[in-house]
Design brief:
The structure is a single chain. The protein has a 3-stranded antiparallel sheet with strand order 2-1-3, covered by helices on one side. By secondary structure, it is an alpha+beta fold. The chain has 2 domains: about 80 residues, no CATH class; about 70 residues, no CATH class. It contains 4 helices and 3 strands, in the order ββαβααα. The chain starts with a strand and ends with a helix. Helix 2 packs across helix 3 and helix 3 packs across helix 4.
Length: about 150
């Protein structure tokens, strides 16, 4: 797996946010850029009407930590690594609360993963104005991100 920083840029060419994106080592720059646009949409970086005006570019680093930097934009976006970390922490919490049984680790992991996907799908659904009859679409988009 390779982690790269990708800038999301507005219509004026100004960086709006920088995302750390993790993909396979054979992924193209276009794949990293596409994943950054997905993260911008999921993270509600801009209003939905402005999403089409966003573009991306590979970040030119001056060194330092591989993380978003001082743009002040609150974001709920996740990389695959951060999603796994949240699932791991929640699965561990469930395991401890259940008395640390030896034979149920997969059960706790799957429950935590599904809860994360459900929460993310709900955010996407709300971001699009809570459209009736389209919940499956948001679930599919969320699970596709999770499986990538």
């Amino acid at each position: 797996m390779t982690e790269r920083l990708v800038d999301v840029v507005n219509e004026n060419g100004n960086p709006v946010h920088t995302y750390p994106i993790t993909l396979s080592t054979t992924a193209s720059e276009a794949a990293f850029e596409a994943k950054a646009l997905e993260a911008a949409q999921y993270g509600r970086l801009v209003p939905t009407a402005e999403l089409a005006g966003l573009t991306t570019r590979m970040h030119v680093s001056q060194g330092g930590a591989l993380e978003p930097y001082g743009d002040g934009v609150p974001s709920t976006s996740q990389t695959k690594a951060s999603l796994d970390q949240e699932v791991r922490a929640e699965a561990y919490r469930k395991w401890v609360l259940s008395g640390q049984p030896d034979d149920r680790s997969n059960e706790f992991w799957n429950e935590a993963r599904e809860e994360q996907c459900r929460a993310r799908a709900y955010i996407l659904w709300q971001q699009e104005g809570s459209p009736n009859g389209r919940s499956d679409e948001f679930w599919y988009r969320t699970t596709q991100f999770d499986q990538s």
